[in-house]
Amino acid sequence: MSITPSNMLPLGTTAPNFDLIDVTSDSTVSLENLKGGKGTIIMFICNHCPFVKHVNSTIASMGQQYHGNEISFIAISSNDVKNYSEDSPELMKLNAIENNFNFPYLYDESQQVAKDYNAACTPDFYLFDSELKLIYRGQLDDSRPGNELECDGVDLKNAIDCLTNKRDNTRIQKPSIGCNIKWK
Fold first, then answer.
1. Is 53 exposed, middle or buried (0-12, 13-18, 19+ CB in 10 A)?
2. Minimal CA–CA distance to 55: which of 135, 126, 150?
3. Taking the C-alpha atoms of 59, 92, 35 and 171 in order, what is their torsion angle to the nearest 10 degrees?
4. How confident is the model at residue 2 (pLDDT cuts 50, 70, 90)?
5. Are 132 and 31 within 8 A, CB to CB?
6. For position 142, which CATH number holds?
7. What average pLDDT score do residues 78-94 get?
8. Structural domain harbouring 95
9. What does the alpha-carbon distance between residue 123 and residue 2 come to, in Å, rounded to a whole number?
């Protein structure tokens, strides 16, 4: 495991479009079809990373909390499954079921989407507004495996609340920390 910070894509960047397989429905979906009316959260996650395992229940809870509020959650795994078989689409589907994800979990086999988003680690979070302009990128919260801080999603929740209440997010946006994306 290599501890890696996120790259912090510039604010205002337009979300790159994609067409990927949703392992939960076995169908191809696009960002255009999945985007939320008010905002869209794109999360780069995977099955095996301890940093992602640490946040799974929180992201599942947030997906439930914001469901119906025109905030769309989208999870993407871009890891090399040849060398990291735990991240295979079949196991991604089981992981989504076990963690009660109510959002699509997409498989980026070519890794092009991760490259387009300049994603570096799992987990890595991006919040886009209704026009798919980046307004937040970085960490879920300050909690990490073993640091004894509660995983509550406070940083991402604040960004969502600022978006939905039309307020500027004046908090410092901190990079996420996690396992590096497993490139081919």
1. middle
2. 150
3. 30
4. low
5. yes
6. 3.40.30.10
7. 96
8. 3-180
9. 13
Report whether 125 contacts 136 (CB < 8 A): yes
What token pair was written down for 34?
Answer: 């999945």
Cβ neighbours, 10 Å, residue 22: 21
Tokens 């996690």, residue? Answer: 178
Give tens-digit pLDDT for 93-140.
Answer: 999 999 999 999 999 999 999 999 999 999 999 999 999 999 999 999
Tokens of 162: 């600022």
Provide mean pLDDT across the span 7-20: 95
**DSSP assignments along 25-66, one per residue:** TTEEEEHHHH--SSEEEEEE--SS-HHHHHHHHHHHHHHHHH
69 has pLDDT over 80: no
Paired tokens of 170: 């004046």
Question: Residue 10 to residues 41, 118, 125, 129: CA-CA distances in angstroms?
Answer: 16, 10, 13, 14
Pairing of strands 39-44, 71-77: parallel
